[in-house]
Automatic annotation (TrEMBL):
It is an enzyme of class 3 (hydrolase). One of its GO terms (molecular function) is alanyl aminopeptidase activity. The keyword Zinc applies. This is Aminopeptidase N. One of its GO terms (biological process) is proteolysis.
Length: 887
């Protein structure tokens, strides 16, 4: 991050400008001396000229930011000042030999570091965060992922205050020093880019275990946490063991070092970081106990632990040539963690959750000012491109390979990728080529998924011809409009899974016009042109179409169809994803109509067909309870907002509340029965069935019964809150109370605060719950919570729990027509930008959709964005987001 001054407008860098570095660094020896006032970093680099690019005598330009250079020597000889130059971003040595050793000594000040990149402190301990470009805040270096070196790191510090000293690789030596100091040396035998470097020092304790690899090696697994958290590590350890085993079984990938360490820190900008052999985690994705963390938290922890572990192969062993290739490691690793979670939990449930997230957040990003291809063409600040597009859409694109090649073909391709590229820094093209080679198939048509921004839209028309007994599917593709200018849309290769059902709900055998016999009851169609036709023959009666089953490609579907077809699919589709989706589409259609009716002052009425279909789901005893909960949930306001322009926040809120109330009243008896059936009186268990039960009964309570606001329901909520022996039930009850204007609400909040004020992760929930309430007074509550003694701008989790929850997830209250919330956010962003630009830039993204709102809100948001951009010394992070938004 660089500061934007009025004189310098930050300039983008372009993917096409990539060239190899002029020098390579093969070996790094670091000595890091941690002291209260200053940290001294000595580095010895073995450097050689890159014969492919650099002519002799080319200057050496090393990245370095916020470093104070103390000493510099080349091959042991101190350099005179005339031989080099230091500025805010670089150290330039004018003339160097072909091979040499460069030694530098720099001073840094981790205790002043509020940005949480480079070396910083969290709760008095030291830790590092180097991805993407922050190793340069630790020492001078060629800080780019294609420069791979081996690292040896010696850390020294006060023995009492920093008894634990960790870095990547293996601990090879330790020793004592004067003044109660000690040192530890680590060596990482694997070459790695600088962004995977890590160092941790502090008062930490370790929860450990082991893993026996498939080749029989025993790996030591260590979870390092602050002492008070030692009883919250077992789930993380189990998750790690499961992930290791899964990767061996699924892809034959084994861990390579002898020790795998995870450190949990409280102050972290992101979720977690895959540093080689030494992951640093946001404590939120490590620590849990049944009474402090919910079932969803447990699932998130398992997924993030697995994600970081999977990076050891997809990211670390094979890394990215440059940051434009980020999706190479992130899309692939998200795909891997999604499959892992599906195997650990339930395939359909996981798929539904992932697609929901993609459609709500990524589709919105694609339609806003930040629209970019999964492999961006340019950026000003790389940190702004750790996006839902690069990650989640990237994972969908990886899934396209699986869909086209099958699971086995995919595994073969992945094996080929490692065989060719282990130890290298490569590109998305290299991945595609490896996949193609292993399967002897041309995959160049997939390239457009990497180069084009925006969501493809498939328009579908099905026509039945009774005389010919044919069913003709006409499919076109185009792109959903994007405000940012994009090159003309070129058609993509879109794999589409389809089935046809007869009126009894039987899937029909499918035979295309040019085939002799039917081949299965589900077909994979390849749409590669702007417009294509698929003709199914021998179809005895008008069928019901199930399109894009399992969400076989990340596209929007537009299709006119009778509501009866949707209701039919809700009841009969044998693809669980599409069965769920049919309900969502139907609910969405009705909600959007209701919102229009509300805005026009018309009386609201709910289509009996939907009530009936909802009732069937409610009483379907074969449906897994988690899936049932998913199916009952109405599309959220934010998602609905994306389907209309301008977004009418009040109408959507009223429409959704109305639908909820009608369903709750109509099915009061059934809902109460479900609640009772699944409300366990036995003690907490984390078995799948116990989790499913909690999910269903809490959905019933929070999303339906609470709307009734009657005494019986209030009593149920109160009882659940008072007697819960786990955080899932406790939080669910409290979130019900957040919707009710009753004395118990404030009592419960106080009680919860009293019990958990010393546990930061639980206190985050307390802030988030209040911020997510749909009560009109929420805005005032949030404003006052922002000056609560426990609110703290320096802790990203706390900021996200209050500010992000409110500004991004609470559509109806954030977009209050008086514009107070906008002003609040803008001021907060500016204050935060001085402390932590990365976090500020995430938050300001809450304005990204501003053009989609009504004129009043549009103007209010625009004026806040203008205030922000007018600020001198804005970070490049915030500058990039806001300038794109205003362009
Ligand atoms: N590479 C991390 C992951 O997705 C995310 C991350 C990016 C963390 C940048 C910190 C900084 O696993
Ligand atoms: Zn990742």
């Amino acid at each position: 991050m660089n500061k934007k001054t009025e004189q310098t407008i930050p300039q983008p860098i372009y993917r096409h400008d990539y060239r190899q570095p002029d020098y390579w660094i093969d070996k790094v020896e670091l000595a890091v001396d941690l002291h209260d006032d200053v940290t001294i970093v000595r580095s010895i680099l073995q450097i050689r000229r890159n014969k492919d690019t650099a002519s002799e005598g080319q200057p050496l330009v090393l990245n370095g930011e916020k470093l104070t250079l103390k000493e510099i020597a080349l091959n042991g000889q101190p350099l005179p000042e005339s031989a080099y130059q230091v500025d805010r971003e670089a150290l330039i040595i004018f003339s160097v030999p072909d091979h040499f050793e460069l030694s530098t000594v720099v001073a840094i000040k981790p205790h002043e570091n509020t940005e949480l990149v480079g070396l910083y402190q969290s709760n008095g301990n030291y830790c590092t965060q180097c991805e993407a470009e922050s190793f340069r805040r630790i020492t001078y270096f060629l800080d780019r992922p294609d420069v791979m070196a081996t690292y040896s790191t010696t850390i020294s510090a006060d023995k009492a205050r920093y008894p634990v000293l960790l870095s990547n690789g293996n601990r090879v030596a330790t020793g004592e020093l004067e003044n109660n100091r000690h040192w530890v040396r680590w060596e990482d035998p694997f070459r790695k880019p600088s962004y995977l470097f890590a160092l941790v020092a502090g008062q930490l304790v370790c929860h450990h275990g082991t893993f026996k690899t498939m080749s029989g090696r025993e790996i030591r697994l260590e979870i390092w946490v602050e002492p008070q958290n030692i009883d919250k590590c077992e789930h993380a350890l189990l998750s790690l063991q499961k992930a290791m085993q899964w990767d061996e079984q699924t892809f034959g990938l084994e861990y390579d070092l002898d020790v795998y360490m995870i450190v949990a820190v409280n102050d972290f900008n992101m979720g977690a970081m895959e540093n080689k052999g030494l992951n640093v985690f946001n404590s939120k994705f490590v620590l849990c106990r049944p009474d402090t963390a919910t079932d969803d938290d447990y699932e998130d922890i398992e997924a993030v632990i697995a994600h970081e572990y999977f990076h050891n192969w997809t990211g670390n062993r094979v890394t990215c040539r440059d940051w434009f290739q980020l999706t190479l490691k992130e899309g692939l690793t998200v795909y891997r963690d999604q499959r892992f979670t599906a195997d650990m939990t339930d395939f359909a449930l996981k798929r539904i959750r992932d697609v929901k997230k993609l459609r709500t957040l990524q589709f919105a990003e694609d339609q806003g000012p930040m629209a970019h291809p999964i492999r961006p063409e340019s950026y000003i600040e790389m940190n702004n491109f750790y996006t839902i597009t690069v990650y989640e859409k990237g994972a969908e694109v990886v899934r396209l390979y699986e869909t086209l090649l099958g699971k086995e073909g995919f595994a073969k391709g992945l094996a080929r990728y490692f065989e060719k590229h282990d130890g290298q820094a490569v590109t998305c093209d290299d991945f595609r080529v490896a996949m193609a080679e292993a399967n002897q198939i041309d995959l160049t048509p997939l390239d457009r998924w990497y180069s084009q921004a925006g969501t493809p839209v498939c328009e579908v028309r099905g026509r039945y011809d009774a005389e010919q007994m044919t069913y003709t599917l006409q499919v076109t593709q185009s792109r959903a409009p994007t405000p940012a200018v994009q090159p003309a849309f070129m058609p993509c290769l879109i794999p589409i899974r389809v089935s046809l059902f007869d009126p009894k709900g039987q899937a029909l055998p499918l035979q295309l016009a040019d085939e002799n016999v039917p081949i299965g009851e589900e077909r994979l169609l390849s749409l590669s042109e702007t417009q294509q036709q698929f003709i199914f023959v021998n179809i005895p009666q008008e069928p019901v179409l199930s399109f894009l089953r399992g969400f076989s490609a990340p596209v929007q579907v537009k299709m006119q169809r009778p509501r009866e077809h949707l209701a039919f699919l809700m009841a009969h589709d044998n693809d669980s994803f599409n069965r769920w989706d049919a309900g969502q589409i139907l609910a969405q259609e009705l909600l959007l109509n209701l919102a229009q009716d509300w805005a026009a002052g018309r009386e609201l009425k709910l289509d009996p067909l939907f009530i009936q279909s909802f009732g069937k789901i409610l009483t379907d005893s074969r449906l897994n309870p988690s899936l049932k909960a998913m199916a009952m949930m109405l599309p959220d306001e934010k998602f609905l907002g994306q389907q209309i322009e301008p977004i009418d926040v009040d109408a959507l809120y009223e429409a959704r509340s109305f639908m909820t109330r009608v369903l709750a009243r109509t099915f009061r008896r059934e809902l109460l029965a479900l609640y009772q059936q699944y409300h366990s009186t036995s003690p907490y268990s984390n078995s799948r069935s116990a989790i499913d039960a909690r999910r269903l009964k809490n959905t019933v309570l929070r999303h339906f019964l609470t709307a009734l606001q009657d005494e019986e329901v209030i009593a149920l909520i109160g009882q659940q809150f008072q007697h819960a022996d786990n955080m899932t039930d406790m939080q669910a009850a409290l979130s019900c109370l957040m919707e009710l204007e009753i004395p118990e609400r404030e009592q419960a909040l106080q009680q919860f605060y009293g019990r958990w004020q010393h546990d930061p992760l639980v206190l985050d929930k307390w802030f988030a719950l209040q911020a997510s309430s749909s009560l009109p007074k929420t805005l005032d509550r949030v404003l006052s919570l922002a000056s609560h003694p426990d609110f703290n701008l320096r802790n990203p989790n706390r900021v996200r729990s209050l500010i992000w929850t409110f500004c991004s997830l609470n559509q109806v209250r954030f977009h209050s027509a008086d514009g107070r919330a906008y002003k609040f956010l803008a001021e907060l962003v500016l204050e935060l930008d001085r402390l932590n630009p990365q976090l500020a830039s995430r938050l300001v993204g809450a304005f990204n959709q501003w053009r989609r709102f009504d004129k009043l809100r549009r103007n209010l948001m625009e004026s806040q964005l203008n205030t922000i951009i007018a600020q001198p010394n804005l970070s490049t992070d915030v500058y990039e987001i806001v300038s794109r938004s205003l362009n």
